Amino acid sequence: MAILVTGGLGYIGSHTVVELLNNNFEVVIVDDLSNSEKFILKNIEEITGRKPVFYPFDLKRRELLTQVFDAHPVDGCINFAASKAVGESQLKPVDYYENNLFSLINILQEFKERGLSNFIFSSSCTVYGQADNMPIDENTPLKMPESVYGKTKQMGEEILADFAKAYQRKISLLRYFNPIGAHPSSKIGELPIGIPNNLVPYVMQTAAGIREKLNVWGNDYPTADGTAIRDYIYVVDLAKAHVAALQKLMQSTSDETLIDIYNLGTGKGSSVLEVIKAFETANNVEVPYQICDRREGDITIAYANVDKAERELGWKSETSLEESLRTVWEWQRYLESRNV
Ligand code: NAD
Ligand code: WQD
């Protein structure tokens, strides 16, 4: 079985490629390296002892994509490729719509023309906005996200739902909560390109002395310690969910459900201060921080109800917050050893 993995050298993509290779799938990666590095490919090979096919180009170039499909009969696709920085998406909306939606549509054109099925889309808990009730299950009403990035995810979901219905193809929409951590080998992880926006990479760089202090965005939220709550899911657990979702798509017949939707999280919420504490305890390091005003656009609380994924995929997250945060620190050590 050959799977096209777009964005396969990126953070979640690279971990998923490792799990696919470990499960004997053939993998064809397309990644333009706009937010990743070529050495990740070599490290994937070192971890798995297998060599994925790799094409470095921009998915917006349909003619190159056509050549990949001509050269490799694929049985499915996991589409990670997208621009993902929320703040940047507000400043460059047209670029975000172009990159995230044109790439998706180009792949779907190939799928449509070639009669292909089994498409997995990287969606996000951002499609729920601030949900009224916790935990968030898949029937929770969607709210149009505030950010352009979030809108591209919601639009992507709608495009795929129409694609599935019109052409009778099977798709899976995976709504990730907050992925964290790195592979236990420390050879792949989240690459720090520029100043991190997300909490855990910022915590990592503060502990390492690259940043002076972590800004905690708000301690006046209606939560136990006043800081906002999220569901932090270990990236290797998340990667394994993709294999389970793919296997389910491949095994189901097209008269079963065409559209699978799963929340992928741990089911447990942690506050910003709890994450800082857990990082300090796990790694025996200090994370200096200061309390600041709330960050615009942030929600108070989001954590997943993961019963559906457990019931239908036989998957659930296995790794504790502390254990995940230990891998973050080991990854930082690895980056230092490489001068990245
Ligand atoms: P990432 O930036 O590490 O990986 C994305 C990869 O896609 C990068 O390697 C980049 O070079 C590549 N890429 C981007 N545009 C491309 C294009 N036009 N052609 C070819 N390659 C292209 O991001 P990630 O954290 O691994 O996220 C993967 C997916 O999951 C994204 O779709 C993201 O929106 C989604 N997601 C991420 C998170 C998160 O917090 N990391 C949460 C929810 C959803
Ligand atoms: C987590 C918490 C911050 C940085 C983003 C995207 C969302 C999804 C997941 C892709 C919040 C606080 C953060 C810092 C802080 N991605 N924080 N100081 O906000 O849940 O969501 O990533 O789909 O679309 O918006 O994640 O890691 O940015 O923040 O206090 O320096 O940490 O305020 O409460 P978030 P995050």
What ions, cofactors and ligands are bound? Answer: nicotinamide-adenine-dinucleotide, UDP-4-deoxy-4-formamido-beta-L-arabinopyranose
Low-confidence stretches: none
Mean pLDDT: 97
Q: Return the CATH class of the largest domain.
A: Alpha Beta
Helix count?
A: 11
| CATH homology superfamily of the largest domain | NAD(P)-binding Rossmann-like Domain
Ends distance? 35 Å
Q: Which class do the helix and strand fractions yield? A: alpha/beta
Which outline best applies? globular
Pfam families: GDP_Man_Dehyd
EC number: 5.1.3.2
Catalytic activity: UDP-alpha-D-glucose = UDP-alpha-D-galactose
Protein name: UDP-glucose 4-epimerase
